[in-house]
Amino acid sequence: MTSRGLDDQQLAAYFTLTEVGNLLQQAVSDQLRADGDLSPVQFQVLATLGDAGATALRMTDLADRIVYSRSGFSYQAAQLEKRGLIAREPSPHDERSTVVRLTDAGRDLLARVMPGHVEVVRGLLFEHMPAADLAALGAVLGPVRDRLRAAPPRSARPRGTARRADR
Amino acid sequence: MTSRGLDDQQLAAYFTLTEVGNLLQQAVSDQLRADGDLSPVQFQVLATLGDAGATALRMTDLADRIVYSRSGFSYQAAQLEKRGLIAREPSPHDERSTVVRLTDAGRDLLARVMPGHVEVVRGLLFEHMPAADLAALGAVLGPVRDRLRAAPPRSARPRGTARRADR
DNA sequence: TATTGTTATACTCTATAACTATA
DNA sequence: TATAGTTATAGAGTATAACAATA
């Protein structure tokens, strides 16, 4: 009957995963709002740019990593630019592209928010987690993430005059 | 310096967890919209009520399990009631309370959406996951979820004239 | 006085489509 | 013709505060 469905153990693991994700994100969201007046998405933009170091990233690449639509990312970039946290510049390589980099103010805010962020995550997720469990978690979810990443990103969806190839 | 922070392994596991959660939710969100015109939150309401069987649940209890604020849940409940998927009735035990139950139409929609939902989750999360990994995932995240649940729910926040006890 | 639920309001966010400019 | 980015528009979702009713 339910031959192709999920068994009880799979269903339970799925629900647990989503619930942990939701509860964690909620706590993190409160912390980011309180410490830096940032939404989770805005923090993710700053953190991604911070990780990139001196490298400036393209709008589309950032959108694919972080948000869903290009327009949504344009909106967020405008918000962050208004606050002086990021800067947008035309790409030297491709006149169509815009590259984004962290400003000093953006780096400062990131540094101010990060300790509390890390503390919330540590307290809720890792405080009581044995080392073996931590290793297992990474080992299990890493391949899943890689598979999910392989799916075509949101920005690759056809738009405007462009049409799907498969018909 | 970064003595109380997260080590590299913890940070990587945290990022992986959130990325998997985001990507999974995005795929699930598309499926629910296509198959039943439901948002993830709305699906969660219907699924929770479906799990409860014949038991009707209180508004506040549903809000605590699923959404964030009571007003947010009132909004969602109104949406679902408009479509005839749930019904709200005064509680027989407490005149202040409202209990919510699934209508036949709600149950039908849930049944229509569930197979595709399960299929998406299976394909993205479990298809290539060894049995041992599945067991490990549940074993690691279960306790984390229980700890997160122990934190006071959103609806318990002071509001109106009510004030915090700790001051 | 506390709790339950709703509503008015204001705001943030998101996606679609239309647009410009460059490859 | 395809790609990169922006913007106008419109809609969904969210939270805060104020409200009415019951415990």
List the helices and strands and how they pair.
The structure is a homodimer of 167-residue chains.
Chain A: H1 8-36, H2 40-51, E1 57-58, H3 59-66, H4 70-82, E2 86-90, E3 98-102, H5 104-126, H6 131-150
Antiparallel strand pairs in A: 1-3, 2-3
Helix pairs in contact in A: 1-5, 3-4
Chain A binds a DNA duplex (23 and 23 nucleotides) through helix 4.
Molecular structure report:
The structure is a homodimer of 167-residue chains. By secondary structure, chain A is mainly α. Chain A has a single domain, classed as Winged helix-like DNA-binding domain superfamily/Winged helix DNA-binding domain (Arc Repressor Mutant, subunit A), CATH 1.10.10. In chain A, 63% of the residues lie in helices and 7% in strands. Chain A is built from 6 helices and 3 strands. A 3-stranded antiparallel sheet of chain A has the order 1-3-2. In chain A, β2 and β3 form a beta hairpin. In chain A, α1 packs across α5 and α3 crosses α4. The first copy, chain A, starts with 7 loop residues before the first helix and ends in a 17-residue tail after the last helix. The interface between A and B is large, with 48 and 48 residues. The structure holds a DNA duplex (23 and 23 nucleotides).
